[in-house]
């Protein structure tokens, strides 16, 4: 079974991001390039990271009108990402058009409820039912729209997996111990997320900010 860990390369410098990925490559299954990376380094940065030969997960969290999102998906074909994120809250038509515009070998997954939000945060933006119910509702919508899967926290992945047996589930907000949670609110351990059905484990700071990133990645791998 391939390693489910995708390392989030949320680093400001391209050379540092590539050096980190190179260092830990034996203990990860792929790399995730998000908004911080893409806004700083764009297509050039993605091409440079792709030279490592690891699968590239492009986490752009697209959320706009269907035509704009579909056009953005077409513009990233050339980068040949293995996985791309969009926001489920963009609605069914946006998700359908994004999937139709994606490359044949690219998995399109929809973010349900960000792992940095809790029930109070959701109530603050007018979603009264709580993170769990909202994540399940948006996962159902993503499935109806024909997407490959969703992004959710480890708190919901078990319940969503039960309703969507062959879905592809990306789980961030992972912390190997009870250490520094930073801005994440709905967290679980990588092992718990995997046990509950996660296909991909997105891990950033617990590896990238560790004193010894290789030891941190190896320790996480050993728990899976
Ligand atoms: O789509 C994501 O990857 C994502 C969704 C989400 O709900 N929460 C979340 O943290 N992420 C990303 O996952 C990574 C988590 O980083 P760490 O908290 O440092 O492990 C970041 O790159 C986030 O952008």
Automatic annotation (TrEMBL):
* UniProt KW Lipid biosynthesis keyword: no
Reactions mediated catalytically: orotidine 5'-phosphate + H(+) = UMP + CO2
What NCBIfam families would the database entry show?
PRK00230.1, pyrF
Residues forming coiled coils: none
Tell me the gene name.
pyrF
Q: Which UniProt keywords apply?
A: Decarboxylase, Lyase, Pyrimidine biosynthesis
Q: Where is the active site?
A: 59 (for ompdecase activity), 61 (proton donor), 61 (for ompdecase activity), 64 (for ompdecase activity)
Name of this chain's protein: Orotidine 5'-phosphate decarboxylase
Gene Ontology terms for molecular function: orotidine-5'-phosphate decarboxylase activity
PROSITE patterns noted in UniProt: OMPDECASE
Lineage, please?
Bacteria, Pseudomonadati, Pseudomonadota, Alphaproteobacteria, Sphingomonadales
Q: What is its EC number?
A: 4.1.1.23
Task: Write down the Pfam families for this protein, in alphabetical order.
Answer: OMPdecase
Give me the residues that bind substrate, please. 10, 32, 59-68, 115, 175, 184, 204-205
Function, in words: Catalyzes the decarboxylation of orotidine 5'-monophosphate (OMP) to uridine 5'-monophosphate (UMP).
Looking up HAMAP family in the UniProt record yields: OMPdecase_type1_B (MF_01200_B)
According to UniProt, this protein's pathway is: Pyrimidine metabolism; UMP biosynthesis via de novo pathway; UMP from orotate: step 2/2
* Residue span, Orotidine 5'-phosphate decarboxylase domain: 4-220
Q: Does the keyword Lipoprotein apply?
A: no
């Amino acid at each position: 079974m391939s390693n489910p860990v995708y390392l989030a390369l949320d680093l400001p410098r391209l050379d540092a991001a590539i050096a980190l990925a190179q260092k830990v490559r034996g203990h990860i299954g792929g790399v995730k390039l998000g908004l911080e990376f893409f806004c700083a380094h764009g297509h050039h940065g993605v091409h440079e990271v792709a030279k490592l030969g690891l699968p590239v997960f492009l986490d752009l969290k697209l959320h706009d009108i269907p035509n704009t999102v579909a056009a953005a998906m077409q513009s990233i074909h050339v980068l040949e990402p293995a996985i791309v994120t969009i926001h489920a809250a963009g609605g069914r038509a946006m998700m359908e058009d994004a999937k139709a515009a994606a490359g044949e070998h690219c998995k399109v997954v929809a973010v349900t409820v960000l792992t940095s939000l809790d029930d109070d945060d959701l109530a603050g933006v007018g979603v009264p039912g709580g993170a769990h119910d909202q994540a399940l509702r948006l996962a159902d919508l993503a499935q109806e729209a024909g997407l490959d899967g969703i992004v959710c926290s480890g708190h919901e992945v078990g319940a969503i997996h039960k309703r969507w047996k062959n879905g592809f589930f990306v789980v961030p907000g992972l912390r190997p111990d009870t250490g520094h949670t930073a801005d994440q609110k709905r967290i679980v351990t990588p092992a718990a997320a995997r046990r509950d059905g996660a296909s991909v484990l997105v891990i950033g700071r617990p590896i990238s900010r560790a004193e010894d990133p290789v030891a941190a990645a190896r320790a996480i791998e050993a728990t899976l």
